[in-house]
UniProtKB/TrEMBL annotation:
Gene: rplD
Family to which this protein belongs: Belongs to the universal ribosomal protein uL4 family.
Function per UniProt: Forms part of the polypeptide exit tunnel. One of the primary rRNA binding proteins, this protein initially binds near the 5'-end of the 23S rRNA. It is important during the early stages of 50S assembly. It makes multiple contacts with different domains of the 23S rRNA in the assembled 50S subunit and ribosome.
Keyword terms, alphabetized: Ribonucleoprotein, Ribosomal protein, RNA-binding, rRNA-binding
NCBIfam families: rplD_bact
Gene Ontology BP terms: translation
Organism: Coraliomargarita sinensis
Protein name per UniProt: Large ribosomal subunit protein uL4
GO CC annotation terms, alphabetical: ribonucleoprotein complex; ribosome
Biased composition (Basic residues): 76-87
Region described as Disordered: 66-97
Length: 211
């Protein structure tokens, strides 16, 4: 796989071959990507939504009015779902939404997501993510050089240099992630990903079975 590699200032670039980068033919791994993304999102759900049934809601159980003669429908208690302040029928209760994904599927999804993002031209490599001072303006200049037109961008490094981390954290639409923490959901969510040279080495090692 050939990726565009930029200099540290982002002004010059050249294409470089990354021999061990994941490669696919056909639709292999697409279903795994979908399943892993769903699992990531499900695992973030708190699952603490809770409503009260008619047995749990506070209120009198006394019959509201006599059975016959009122000219309206008979009512037995104020706690029924169709009464104001009554219980909720079939409402949510606390539950566990988490899903378990085995290691092989997780690895396959990560590899496929990387391949698709790189094939679309959304993965760029920069020699190093460094700025002389922790100033947003300096880091923004580098980003503009690498991506003149950008939306949301994910910046990935093996371990962020302090000045770069401070300079990048306040830029609108820019998120930071270390290569060891990069997930399939991150790769799918961001159309533009900029990775440092050290970061891409770690990512490729993870994709090929390293941790």
């Amino acid at each position: 796989m050939k990726l565009k590699v930029f200099t540290t200032d982002g002004k010059k670039s050249e294409e470089k071959e990354f021999a061990n980068f994941p490669a696919f033919e056909g639709d292999k791994g697409i279903a795994a990507v979908r399943q892993v993304v769903i699992a990531h999102q499900a695992n973030k759900r708190q699952g603490n939504a809770s409503t009260k049934t008619r047995a749990e809601v506070a209120g009198s159980g006394k019959k509201l009015f006599r059975q016959k003669g009122s000219g309206t429908a008979r009512q037995g208690t104020r706690r029924v779902p169709h009464q104001r302040h009554g219980g909720v029928a079939h409402g949510p209760k606390p539950r566990d939404y988490s899903q378990k994904i085995n290691r092989k599927m997780k690895a396959l999804a990560f590899q496929r997501a990387l391949f698709d993002r790189a094939s679309e031209g959304g993965l760029s490599v920069i020699e190093a993510l460094e700025v002389k001072e922790p100033k947003t303006k300096l880091f923004n200049q580098v980003l503009t050089s690498v991506l003149p037109e950008r939306g949301k961008v994910l910046i990935v490094d093996d371990q962020f240099e302090n000045n770069a981390a401070l300079a990048a954290r306040n830029i609108d639409g820019v998120s930071l992630s270390e290569a060891g923490d990069l997930s399939t959901l991150d790769v799918v969510r961001y159309r533009h990903i900029i990775v440092s040279s050290k970061g891409i080495e770690t990512i490729i090692a993870r994709a090929n079975g390293g941790e």
